[in-house]
Amino acid sequence: MEFRIGPVRVRSRKGYRLKRWWTANVEPFLPERVKNRLFVRRKARRTRTRLRVPIAAAPGGGRLRIALRVSGGLGDFIVIARFIRDLAAACEEFEFDVFATNPKVAAFAFSLVSGYGATFEEFLFRRSLGGYDLALIANQTVLFDDASARWDRIASYPLLARALHRMERVRADGLEIFVERHPYFDGFMARRAVYMNESRRTFLHHMAGLEYKGDRLVVPAVIPKEFPVRGPFVTVHNGFDTSVKIHGGSGRHTKCWPHFTELVALLKEEFPALPIVQLGSTTSEPIPGVGVDLIDKTSFPEVAAILAASAFHFDNESGLVHLAAAQGTMSAVMFGPTPVDFFSYPGNVNVAPEFCGGCWWTVPDWMDACPRGFDNPLCLRSTSALRVMNLVRLHLAGRLKAPAAVGSLPVAGLMEGAASHEAQSR
């Protein structure tokens, strides 16, 4: 093991005068994004100079280490985890650590992806770059930090270098404005992605030139010890990501569909013996008529197991839709502010609004209130429970007749996955 020690920098008196002049007369008038880039580069340079960071003496002496910063909620983490899964399959072996605003949720999504190490708080990301060979930033796009990258190490990973080169080219080819204005231009970026024949599922893969290997993703899953349902059942969820802070008077996200009570009544009328299980956390509201209320009573591994065993899942456009797709379960998704052609899964029943819709990030407070000024977003109010029932009836009946697709899960395998998740989260 050898150590990389940054070079000693000797600045002349003329250099110090030039720096003082630049700081006083030029830097205050630079755009904020340029100041941020300068700060990042200086920080990375100082880190490399002051820290003694262990690296492999030869290309085969140790795997490349990647720091991955992610943002968003459960759905975003699952999308990015699929990207890292396929990047690891297409490139040379590497190790990665995740930096997230919600490390617990991120650890759940990434813990069984090949090369995963640990998850940390996001604020440590910039302060930890001296210990990594490459830094990736993933949200609606995927980028790498040029200033902190160790290109001498990355040169020994030609397939990974090719993916990074592709990211750089795609970003330069019309995506720079979306990167700089994230998240406020995300809605515009989604339109651009759709007209490139991509979606939320595949856009990160497109940026890196990777083949998308499918929606299924291995995550920790464990059946609750006292799960009261035996046989086929359906799940419902009417909440939203707990990391989202709603400032409007209703306290509800504009993505929340308001007709779940009517839908549950229709389900009980047409399938009276079918158990209905409600999933969710603190942002969910109890739905009258459900058979089993599991709001705020399950862990993520337990939710994953329940969704895997569910015959069908009903939801707003939320993170549990992504988790259900990762488990191979079909969902009926009621869309409103988020664009259906960007966020939908082909295997789901995607219910587009009959009026308006797709206002995602057209205004900064789109989550709090309807941008058109309606007290309750008409896009979701216009989607009736009867319309949803008519769209899912044949799909639901077919899945209820196929017990192999919705039967009991192998408990031993689920427990093993949960144990692996616990071990890697420590």
Walk me through this protein's architecture.
The chain has 426 residues and is an alpha/beta fold. It has two domains: 54-208, no CATH class; 234-410, Rossmann fold (3-Layer(aba) Sandwich). The chain is built from 16 helices and 13 strands. The chain has helices at 13-25, 32-50, 74-90, 103-110, 151-154, 158-180, 186-194, 203-208, 260-270, 300-309, 319-326, 340-343, 378-381, 385-400, 403-406, 411-425; strands at 2-4, 53-55, 64-70, 94-100, 116-121, 134-138, 142-144, 234-237, 276-278, 292-293, 312-316, 331-334, 349-351. The strands form three sheets. The protein has a six-stranded parallel beta sheet with strand order 10-9-8-11-12-13, with helices on both faces. Helix 4 links the parallel strand 4 (94-100) and strand 5. Helix 3 crosses helix 4 (103-110) and helix 9 crosses helix 14. It starts with a strand and ends with a helix.
Shape estimate: globular
Structural classification: alpha/beta
Total domains: 2
User: Taking all residues together, what is the mean pLDDT?
Assistant: 85
Cα-atom radius of gyration: 24 Å
